[in-house]
Amino acid sequence: MLQMKSELSLLNELNVLYVEDDKYIQEELEFFLSGKVKSLTIASNGQEGLEAYKNNQIDLIITDIQMPKMNGLEMSRKIREINKDAKIIITTAFNDTEYLMEAIKLNLGNYLTKPLDLNYLIEIMIESAKNILLEKENRRILNTFEQYKSVVDERSIVSKTDINGIITYINKPFEEISGYTVSELIGKSHNIIRHEDTPIEVFEDMWQTILAKKVWQGKIKNKKKNGDYYIVDTIIKPIVNIDGEIEEFIALRNDITELEMSKEYFKHRNEKTSTNLKESIRVAKTYKDIVDKSNMIIRIDLDRNITFVNDAFCEVSGYSKDELIGKPYAMLKDSNVTMEEYQTEINAMFDAMDGKRVLRRKLANRAKDGSTFYCKAISYPLVDKNGEISEYMGVRHDITDIEKLHKELEDTQRELIYRLGEVGETRSKETGNHVKRVANYSKLLAKHYGLSKEEENHLFSASPMHDIGKVGIPDNVLNKPGKLDEKEWEIMRTHSEIGYEILKNSARPILKAAAIVSYTHHEKWDGTGYPKGLKGKDIHIFGRITAIADVFDALGSDRVYKKAWPLEQILDYFKEQKGKHFDPTLVDIFLENLDEFLEIRDKYKDNFGKNS
Q1: Do residue 68 and residue 200 come from a single domain?
Q2: Any idea which residues bear 4-aspartylphosphate here (predicted)?
Q3: Separation CA 216–CA 2 (nearest Å)
Q4: DSSP classification of residue 331
C-alpha cells in the first residue's frame, strides 16, 4: 500500500489531456483524476483534443475512439506527427479488431475497453509516468552535457579521435589555431598536423599511455596548414564505456606557443656572453609574467607552508593571497580524501621532489567554498646556488570543467545500470534503492575480502542486475503476498537462469560479471541452493558476495510477503547460517565491519513512506 501511494505521487508530475464525447463518462473520469494529476485538460472530440495538445504542455493523452468531427485514432495520428514519442492511452466501448489493428500501426500500446477498470487505468498511467519522467530526466542530463561541452569548447582547443587516431570532432579554437576547417580534418589521421620537430618517442609514449587507459600529458609541437608551427600543452584522456573498453580519445590543449618562444629566446640570449644584464632581467621578468598570467602558480617552503600564490591560483581556489600565504599546504586537502590517504600521497610527492625529480600529475584540492577543483600540475624543487633545495614550486592548469564532464558521464552510465537493475525490482514491487544498497554492500564486502580494484568495480556495476531474470516471472507468482506453492516456487527459481540467458553471450566484462551474479547468487555454501546446487568455493566469489548483500537488504526491508526484520534478528540469522547458506569467511568480514554496512543502509534508505 505504501508503494502504491508513493507511485501515485508520480501522477502529480503529469499534465493530462482527456478526450471523450460522452459527458457522463467524461465527468466521471474527470472527478476520479482531479487532484491526482498536475493538470487535467478536457476535450469533447478529436479536433478539440488536437488544438488542446498544440496549446498546452501535455505529457499524457487519454482518448476515446468514436467521436464527432475527428475520431481518437485520427487525432492520435496527427499528434504523433507533431511528437512521435507522445504517450497515448486508447479507451473504447467496442472491442473491434479493425480499431485494434489501427492502434497497433500507430504503436499505441495501451488499448483499454469500457467500462474502464479505474485501478488498471491508474496502473497504466503510473507506468507511463515512470517512462515520461525518465525521458525528462534524460533530456535534462543531455542538456547538462551540452552546457559542459560548451564551457570546455570555449576555454580549450578540443579534438576527439577514434581508437585508431582518426579525427571525429574538432572545435572552433582548433580550426583557428591549425588553419584547417572541420571538413578538411574530420576522417583524417591526426598525423596531418604532426610537426617533424616532435620526436617519434613522444608519440610512442603517448599511445602506450592512452591505450593503457591512462591520461597522457605533455607538450606537442604541431604544424599549421600554412606550414607554420604552434605548441600546445596537451592532455589526452581515453573515454571508456561501462565495460571499461576504450570508445574514443578526447584531447584538450592550451596554446603555449608564445610562452615556449619566450623560453627559447631567454635561453639563447643568456647563452651569448655579450648579453646585457639589464636586458636579461627584463626578459626574465617578461617570461615570469607570461608564466604567471597563463598558469596557476604556488610555492611551498621546506616546512610545507605556502610562501606564494599568484592571482590565477586565487581566482580558481576562491582564497585571497592573505588567506593562503604562511598557511600549511594541507589546508587545500580535498575533503573527499581521508587525512591518512592525503598524508601517504603528499609524502610520496615531496619525497620524489626531494630526489630533485619533476612530477607531472593530476591533483584535487579543496576550494574556499568547500568544492573540489582539479589541476594538471607540474611540481619541481627550486635549488639555491649550493644545489640545496630551498622550496618547491607548482605550475598548474585548471581542468575542473573536464573532470566534471567526465564525472557526469560516469554517473549517467551508473544510473543506466541502476535503471536496468530496477526493471526486475520494479516488477516485484521492490524499491530502486534496493539495487543501490546491494551494489554498495557488494563493493564494500569485495574490498574487505581483498579482491582487486578492477574486480571490485566490476561487481559494483554488475550486482544491481542480480534479479534481472525476474522480468520473465509472471506477476501472479512474483507479487503473491503469501507463501508460494511448490509449482509457483519452481517457476520463481527459474529467474536466476533467465537472467543468465539474457546476459551470458555479452562480450562486455561487466555484463559477463552480471551473468555470473544472476546465476550464482542463490547458490548456498552447503550445496542446497539453486539452480545447480553448487557447493563451497565452486560458487563464484561474485555470487557468494552478492548473496550476503542481497539477503541482508531483503531481510531488513518490507516485501509483499513479509515485514522488515529487526537488526538483531538479522545478525542472529547470519550467525546461524554461517557455513550453511553463506561463505563463513565472508560472514566474519560482514560482522566485523557491520558499522560500514549500516552507514550504507542509512544513506540509501527507502523514503516512500514519508509521502504516504
Answers
A1: no
A2: 64
A3: 52
A4: G
Residue 151 lies in a domain: no
Cell of 426: 520494479
Q: Residue 161: which of 200, 203, 202, 197 has the closest Cα?
A: 203
In a domain, residue 266? The reply is: no
What is the greatest pairwise CA distance in the chain? 103
Q: Same domain for 318 and 464?
A: no
Chunk the chain into consecutive blocks of 10 residues (it has 612) and report each block's average pLDDT, rounded to whole numbers.
60 90 89 90 92 92 88 89 87 67 68 81 86 80 60 71 92 90 92 90 91 91 92 88 85 82 64 51 50 73 90 90 92 84 78 75 88 85 80 84 75 62 51 80 96 91 85 78 85 88 82 91 95 95 96 84 87 96 97 95 71 36
- Answer yes or no: do 126 and 161 share one domain: no
pTM over 0.70: no
Contact residues for 239 (Cβ-Cβ < 8 A; gap 6+): 246, 247, 248, 249, 250, 409
Domain tally, the chain: 4
The predicted structure's pLDDT at residue 205:
92
Residue 323 belongs to domain with CATH number: 3.30.450.20
| 246: containing domain | 156-252
Which one, of 11, 108, 137, 2, lies nearest residue 419 by Cα?
A: 137
| Any domain includes 234 | yes
DSSP bridge pairs for 246: 240
Angle at 567 between CA 457 and CA 602, to 5 degrees: 50
CB 247 within 8 A of CB 234: no
- What are residue 161's DSSP bridge partners? 167, 249
| Rounded distance between C-alpha atoms, residue 436 and residue 415, angstroms | 10
Q: Residue 440 falls within a domain, yes or no?
A: yes
**Domain co-membership, 507 together with 571:** yes
d(CA 528, CA 86): 50
Other beta carbons within 10 Å of 132: 19
State which of 146, 177, 200 marks the end of a domain: 146
Amino acid at 253: R
- Spatial distance between the Cα atoms of 604 and 591, rounded to a whole number of angstroms: 20
* Residue finishing a domain among 146, 175, 191: 146
96 by DSSP, 3-state: which?
coil
